[in-house]
Each structure stands twice: as structure tokens, then as C-alpha cells.
Write a structure and sequence with these properties.
The chain is an all-alpha fold. It has helices at 12-24, 27-37, 39-46.
């Protein structure tokens, strides 16, 4: 099994929003947060559109 990484950089406002969701146990809010902040990144990783590739996968080498 290979592992893939997704980095999520959050502003202070976004971090507070996530913290409130966690404190409230807000499942619907958590799903909305994931859809808003991670959906596109997950899709790109799964479809192989990430910007970082090992050197041996780059063309021209």
C-alpha cells in the first residue's frame, strides 16, 4: 500500500472554523469543511495531478 500526502494550510480564520466544528461535534459542518477545503485536493491526488513527482517520473530524463 502506498501512501499519499495532502497538505492543508489554513488561515487563522479557517483554523478557528475547524476548531469550532471539532468542539461542537458538528458532523454536517465537518463534511461541509472537507468539501470546501479538501475535495479538490483529494481529487487531484487520486487522479495523479499533484505538482510533485519523483525525478524518475519526470519527462526528459
Amino acid at each position: 500500500m502506498t501512501k499519499k500526502s495532502i497538505v492543508l494550510a489554513l488561515s487563522d480564520e479557517e483554523l478557528v472554523k475547524l476548531y469550532r466544528i471539532i468542539l461542537d461535534g458538528d458532523k454536517d459542518g465537518a463534511l461541509r469543511f472537507l468539501e470546501e477545503y479538501l475535495k479538490d485536493r483529494v481529487w487531484k491526488v487520486m487522479e495523479g495531478f499533484g505538482h510533485c513527482k519523483p525525478w524518475f517520473e519526470c519527462s526528459g530524463r
